[in-house]
Specification:
The structure holds two protein chains of two kinds. By secondary structure, chain A is an alpha/beta fold. Chain A is built from 24 helices and 42 strands. In chain B, 28% of the residues lie in helices and 23% in strands. Chain B is built from 13 helices and 16 strands. In chain B, helix 9 crosses helix 10. Chain B starts with a helix and ends with a helix. The chains are: A alpha/beta, B alpha/beta. At the A-B interface, helix 14, helix 21 and helix 24 of A face helix 10 and helix 13 of B.
Chain lengths: 977, 425
């Protein structure tokens, strides 16, 4: 009977507890899951970044916080942990992790193209788009990693498989070690994206702009799939549509990527939370304006080893400056009100987390914000504020115990509690040996001082002249080694007896020796020489050649020869008044208006409009070609403008003020182009020349048919000029049909066809890479068939053979002055080409396709004088008003006429002479290049470099890590790259 | 009748599309009268006369009084300019017809040590490119092999010949080496990361092995012929020069010091960073072949115009240098590269030296070429205007070793063909 009762009781107990902790996992033996109440008392509790409670009590049960405050009654049966002198913080949260998720394997890449996804099944067509990957299914505890993360203060991570462009969903988990099932707090924490296609072996996309276009198309596809409910199944889109309400996270590689990501989100009403790279200070205003929240790796580069000046030379000022600026980046973001969290991901050395965090604080990041960035902000980003981030009642019992303010140097994290489970990091409750002692040993009296934290004691023997004492704490005992100067040494262990310490040892004869160290009192706590808090001044950042904004809004250039490139031709002794970025007056100085404005003496000099390069590939980030398919009209150079390219400045030094940035020529229908004003120093969006008429790059001939791409590239259609024609017929026929389809509801937005349709509707214009006459003729026929005009043929090296036909079609020609011989299709290229076309009435320009030639376009134009006796005025027109006309911007730039933009170049001689060079270049009335400024700037750069070199040498001397000085490649693009 | 006419017409176009026939030496001596004569050594004669006889420059003076001109053919060149034939070092003219077509490329042999390779035998006198560069005044060229660590031997040719034997004016003038690069750039985008070349030391050791073997081989009588080592014989006897292709300051110093250990004074080809070490170059008597001054600065914070200024910097530092380019068709722009140096500080005559006298000295053909001096080869040309400026350069007549060459080329023919189609010219 009694047994029965007991049994009943046990069953009842088991039953009732199972209600609270149902797991469904069978247990081997009796269940042992007592949910103890734990009370932490007498601590300093940082409940959240704003709230610090002294003498606080924290009570937890069943993995959650049940009470917190200063005067809390401790419930009966609670285990009390006295945390006198200790601090409690919510443990940290990392939003960007791949904890517990296996890394993907690289696939073997077969030679030759791969057009479609190699993933079998009803998935998206592109292998890098796999929103269906659900990282929670891949999760299992990684005890080594969880311990590492706990030890530095983290309690939770949001983790995803870091592979591909649309990477799938991640999950949010605690960093406990007990069971996989218990760790996942939120199955789906967000959608994750990047521009990097990861282990996809599919060719598309090969460029950054391709990745952007792919993501845009993917978003349109997902919307369409949801709305139109097509008969065709797409599991990837199904998956994404289910998870699309979750937060969106995006990995950016640098600050320009951050801006790109945000812009990408704007189109679809998505506010991405963006993982940056720590260089956000470079365009901080733009980052702020984006309203994006950031995830920031505490990645501060090591100083470069610049002992050798020849090595130092290889490091650009921007790289050196990044070394200096990176530790200020968190503070700069904070000061600009940009919300961010901190991550370990992307850190080259994770053990730098704490040193770097403290450095960031030293450099102006408030401690409260640092905590915010590690707790409440990540919780907010993950929409998990109700569960974690602070130590409020009802939240998860995830917290760390420290022996002081966690952000102060020397503070140790003692314990990290995850879901109410203790994880000891330091055995801090060990026996405290610190104090002053004296020993009387072999007729000598020594003093011993043991200092440091109880778990990390350090000993000092006095007088020092007699020897030294080394100690190490182990399991409550102190192992010691006493090295006396008389050559004798003793080692052994020791234990505490009362306040004294007993040292036991064997002497050299094996005889046991016991020494008593008598306690004298507490050791004097050596005040750390208080670091004088120097208010760090945030260094200023600007691009190396960026001029300070010049404030002169109105000025007059007097007494120069003005090449108007307009009706007035060449004017001697003329004057130009510039006001608010525009040319206000142009007149012969005999009619001097005598205005009292800032004067620039142009005596002996020549003034021309800024040069316009119709064919340039400067200022482009991460790939100029998306040559992986024959039609890639969906990609846009405007998505990847690289405002930091030093070539912008170099072009200005050659008198160029506007550049037309083209996609490469690897495929028949390349990407959409971008027109920029060379306002060096401005952010990418501000460089854009705002126009209604947009352009697109087409290409013909050898590049398109992959003639010189090697033996494996013989599969992609087309491989002949015959096929090239059909690519166009196919593309435009589909675009036409698409135009019809657009009139019906529920159509799928097709970015590729949208661009082609714009051409058919004369809203987008073609500039076509071309060489031989047959293909030139062909494209004009294609255009005629579809009822539009080819706007420009670029390169057009055999244009002279069909100049009459071109004139009839009304197409412009933008050519090289004298290039030939580099491939078969330029065998008949002649330097007389521009001259013949010009004379035949074709609108003719000279372009560069090369960042070096771009800054000598005046000379290239002058070659038409040499080869074809073109007049000087006509020659200059070929790099000013003619390309302006081709680009449909001749009403705004390209000539010096009243009301036009003040894009001007002042030359020290005839602008068509090899002996002349620009003295000053203005864009919209602002000086962006000037020989005197350039000299000053060079001196400034040299000085700044020297300052940083000295600082880096000092850093090396101070024992900081350094990295080897290796030169970083600057991408330099041509059509065929 | 019509058919025959068409036949003749066709035949004549085909004949025209050929590379011009090499010319013969005129029996009559020549008097070029009243030109601005650019000697090539920095001096200019205005209103000067140049007399050519038997392929040589007989006399240059401002006005002749004492001579009987009846036997001379007289060319009136008042207002025009006379220049020594320009020299293009480091070119693959005639070794390369179309860059992209493998079958037309004969300048880059496989292998690391090609000391025995000779460019001269691959020289195609019928290259269509040659006439196009000739017509801009370039009359002499150094045919330079590339590739590998030791690329092979260059030869110097004149650009109007029936075959390579005719063309050669100095065979196997120099052995060309690519110095191991000490710094390799970090990649970007697809392959980020550090790829520092750690094998530099190894590569230099390998070169040292070759040179020390060559030294012992050449100073003894080996039993077995070794073609590669045999090629060093003229180097140690200073009959053949050593051209080292490299751009970095550190590489230049290392290369020079290496060669000095073997008693060789090398010539540096490239020299982007020569502005960092002019004193070293001058003191060690190192001459430089600057490659492509129409170039971007190599580093982002280098002076934007640095490549354009290099000639002036070297000139002022007293370093012997000349200006060259790479490739074949590009050579026609050589005078303009020199011209750009004028915009950045050189005088026109100093700039001209960089493609005439200096080049001849560096290539070791200055005894006959490079300047217009009595007794030297009558290799010169007439231009309507200043040839360093594209605005005025117009080469009208040219002579190589006294033979007036045909300045026509296939491009001029195409120009004519289509001008006649459109404009009836």
């Amino acid at each position: 009977m009694l047994i029965k009762r007991i049994l009943f009781c046990i069953i009842f107990i088991l039953f009732s507890y199972n209600i609270f902790a149902q797991t469904g996992t069978p247990v081997n033996g009796a269940v042992d899951n007592y949910e103890r109440i734990t009370a932490f008392t007498n601590c300093t509790l940082v409940k959240d970044p704003q709230t610090k409670i002294v003498n606080a009590v924290l009570i937890i049960q069943k993995g959650k916080i049940t009470a917190v405050g200063s005067s809390i009654k401790i419930p009966a049966g609670a285990k009390v942990i006295d945390l006198q002198g200790k601090w409690i913080y919510p443990s940290f949260i990392d939003v960007w992790s791949d904890y517990g998720v296996p890394k993907v394997q690289n696939k073997t890449n077969n030679p030759g193209p791969q057009f479609l996804s190699s993933k079998k099944g009803a998935w998206y067509w592109n292998e890098a788009i796999h929103p269906e990957i659900s990282a929670n299914q891949l999760f299992s505890i990684n005890p080594e990693e969880s311990k590492y993360l706990r030890d530095i203060g983290f309690g939770m991570v949001a983790s995803h498989q870091q592979n591909g462009i649309a990477r799938g969903t991640g999950f949010f988990a605690t960093l406990g070690d007990d069971s996989d099932q218990k760790q996942i707090v939120n199955l789906n924490s967000g959608n994750y994206f990047s521009f990097n296609k990861g282990n996809s072996t599919q060719d598309y996309p090969s460029s950054l702009m391709g990745a952007i276009a792919l993501l845009r198309q993917f978003q349109y596809d997902a919307k369409w799939y949801k709305m139109a409910k097509p008969t065709e199944v797409n599991l990837s889109l199904e998956a994404y549509n289910l998870s699309s309400i979750l937060p969106h996270f995006f990995e950016a590689e640098d600050v320009q990527d951050v801006l790109r990501v945000d812009k990408l989100g704007d189109e679809f009403g998505i506010q991405y939370i963006i993982k940056g790279n720590g260089d956000d200070y470079q365009f901080v205003q733009e980052v702020k304006n984006s309203n994006a929240s950031l995830i920031l790796p505490l990645n501060f580069p090591d100083a470069y080893d610049v002992e050798d000046p020849l090595d130092a030379r290889l490091i650009s000022l921007s790289e050196m400056k990044h070394w200096e600026m990176a530790p200020f980046n968190p503070a700069i973001l904070y000061k600009n009100g940009i919300e961010f969290s901190l991550t370990l991901s992307g850190m080259k050395k994770r053990d730098k987390f704490w040193p770097n965090l403290r450095k960031a604080i030293e450099n102006g990041l408030p401690e409260e914000y640092a905590l915010k960035a590690l707790t409440t902000n990540p919780a907010k980003f993950l929409k998990s504020e109700t569960q974690c981030g602070t130590l409020d009642i009802g939240k998860l019992a995830n917290f760390i115990i420290t022996d002081g303010n966690v952000f102060k140097e020397g503070t140790a994290i003692l314990e990290n509690w995850v879901l109410g489970k203790q994880n000891s990091i330091i055995d801090w409750q060990t026996i405290d040996y610190t104090g002053k002692y004296t020993i009387n040993f072999q007729d000598s009296v020594y003093k011993i001082t043991i200092t440091g934290k109880p778990w990390q004691p350090k000993a000092e023997l006095q007088p020092k002249s007699k020897g030294e004492l080394k100690i190490a704490l182990k399991n409550g005992f102190i192992n010691y080694q006493l090295l006396l100067k008389n050559g004798k040494s003793y080692s052994g262990t020791s234990y505490k007896t009362g306040n004294d310490i007993t040292l036991i040892s064997n002497d050299s004869l094996g005889k046991s020796v016991t020494i008593l160290a008598k306690y004298l009192g507490k050791a004097d706590v050596k005040e750390d020489s208080i670091k004088k808090k120097i208010e760090s001044v945030v260094p200023k950042f600007s691009m190396p050649w960026q001029y300070d904004t010049n404030s002169i809004k109105e000025f007059i250039i007097t007494n120069c020869t003005v090449w108007t490139c307009d009706k007035q031709g060449k004017m001697e002794n003329a004057e130009v008044i510039v006001s608010n970025g525009k040319i206000q007056r142009l007149y012969n100085n005999k009619t001097f208006l005598g205005r009292n404005i800032y004067k620039i003496d142009g005596t002996g000099m020549h003034l021309t409009p800024g040069i316009i390069d119709e064919h340039s590939h400067i200022a482009i980030s991460k790939g100029v070609n998306e040559g992986t398919q024959s039609i890639t009209s969906e990609v846009r150079i405007e998505d990847v403008i690289n405002a930091k390219d030093v070539n912008i400045y170099r072009q200005l030094a050659g008198g160029v003020t506007t550049s037309h940035l083209l996609h490469g020529s690897a495929n028949a229908i390349g990407g959409q182009t971008a027109l920029i004003k060379l306002k060096y120093g401005e952010a990418p969006e501000k460089l854009k020349f705002q126009t209604d008429h947009r352009f697109i790059k087409f290409a013909l001939g050898e590049n398109v048919k992959q003639s010189n791409w090697g033996d494996y590239q013989t599969v992609r259609f087309p491989q002949t000029r015959m096929g090239v024609e059909q690519v166009f017929y196919d593309g435009f026929s589909r675009a036409k049909a698409y135009g019809e389809l657009k009139k019906t509801p529920g159509y799928r937005i097709d970015l590729e066809l949208e661009a082609l349709l714009e051409i058919l509707n004369s809203k987008r214009f073609i500039t076509c890479h071309s060489y031989v006459q047959s293909e030139i003729n062909m494209l004009m026929h294609v255009a005629d068939t579809f009822g539009f005009k080819v706007n420009t043929f670029t390169h057009i090296l055999e244009g002279y053979k069909v100049a009459d036909k071109m004139k009839k079609h009304g197409v412009a020609a933008s050519t090289f002055s004298d290039w030939w011989g580099y491939k078969y299709e330029v065998a008949d290229a002649i330097p007389y080409n521009a001259g013949i076309m010009n004379k035949a009435g074709v609108l003719t320009g000279i372009n560069s396709d090369d960042p070096e030639m771009g800054r000598r376009l005046n000379q290239e134009a002058a070659k038409t004088i040499k080869y074809s006796d073109v007049s000087e005025i006509d020659a200059l027109n070929m790099v000013t008003i003619n390309p302006a006309k081709m680009l449909h911007i001749d009403n705004r730039v390209g000539s010096i006429a009243e009301g036009k933009g003040a894009d001007l170049v002042l030359w020290d001689g005839n602008p068509l002479s090899n002996y002349s060079k620009p003295v000053t270049t203005w864009v919209e009335g602002k000086i962006y290049f000037d020989r005197n400024e350039d000299l000053k700037k060079r001196a400034e750069i040299a000085k700044e470099r020297q300052r940083l070199i000295v600082a880096m040498r000092k850093a090396k001397k101070d024992g900081q890590n350094t990295q080897k000085a290796i030169r970083t490649l600057e991408a330099e693009y041509h059509c065929e790259d | 009748m019509k058919k025959i006419l068409i036949g003749i017409l066709l035949f004549s176009t085909i004949a025209k599309a050929q590379v011009p026939t090499p010319s013969k030496l005129s029996v009559k001596p020549l008097l070029i009268k009243g030109a601005t004569v650019h000697v090539g050594n920095g001096y200019v004669f205005k209103y000067a006369d140049v007399m050519l006889r038997n392929g040589q420059i007989e006399r240059i003076d401002t006005f002749f009084k004492d001579q009987d001109f009846t036997v001379y053919e007289i060319i009136n060149t008042e207002g025009k300019h006379v220049y020594p034939g320009l020299i293009a070092p480091n070119t693959n003219i005639g070794l390369n017809e179309i860059d992209a077509i493998r079958s037309t490329r004969d300048y880059n042999e496989v292998g690391e040590n090609n000391a025995n390779i000779r460019s001269i035998i691959a020289y195609n006198t019928d290259s269509k490119i040659t006439p196009t560069i000739r017509s801009n005044g370039i009359l002499l060229a150094q045919l330079t092999p590339t590739g590998g660590s030791i690329s092979g031997n260059s030869s110097i040719v004149q650009l109007d010949a029936w075959n390579w034997e005719d063309a050669a004016i100095k065979t196997d003038d120099a052995l060309h080496l690519n110095w191991p690069r000490m710094h390799v750039q970090k990649g970007w985008w697809t392959e980020p990361g550090d790829i520092e070349k750690l094998q530099v030391d190894k590569e230099i050791k390998a070169l040292d092995e070759i040179f020390s073997n060559a030294k012992t081989y050449c100073s003894s009588k080996p039993d077995i012929l070794n073609l590669k080592l045999e090629a060093f014989k003229d180097i140690f006897s200073a009959k053949k020069k050593v051209f080292i292709h490299t751009d970095g300051a550190r590489e230049m110093i290392s290369a020079v010091q290496f060669m000095q250990r073997y008693g060789i004074t090398p010539i540096i080809v490239g020299g982007d960073e020569s502005f960092l070490i002019p004193k070293f170059l001058r003191e060690n008597k190192i001459a430089l072949v600057l490659i492509r001054t129409h170039n971007l600065p190599s580093l982002p914070e280098d002076d934007v115009d640095l490549p354009y200024k290099l000639p002036k910097i070297l000139h002022d530092s007293g370093v012997l240098y000349c200006i060259a380019d790479v490739g074949a068709w590009q050579q026609r722009n050589l005078p303009f590269q020199a011209g750009t140096a004028v915009a950045f500080g050189l005088t026109r005559e100093q700039a001209l030296m960089a493609i005439t006298k200096n080049a001849a000295e560096i290539l070791g053909i200055d005894k006959n070429y490079g300047t217009l001096e009595v007794g030297k080869s009558a290799t010169l040309f007439i231009s309507e205007g200043d040839i360093l400026d594209m605005k005025t350069s117009k080469v009208t007549r040219a002579w190589i070793d006294g033979r007036e060459i045909n300045l026509d080329n296939s491009q001029k023919q195409l120009d004519k063909k289509f001008r006649s189609k459109y404009f009836g010219e």
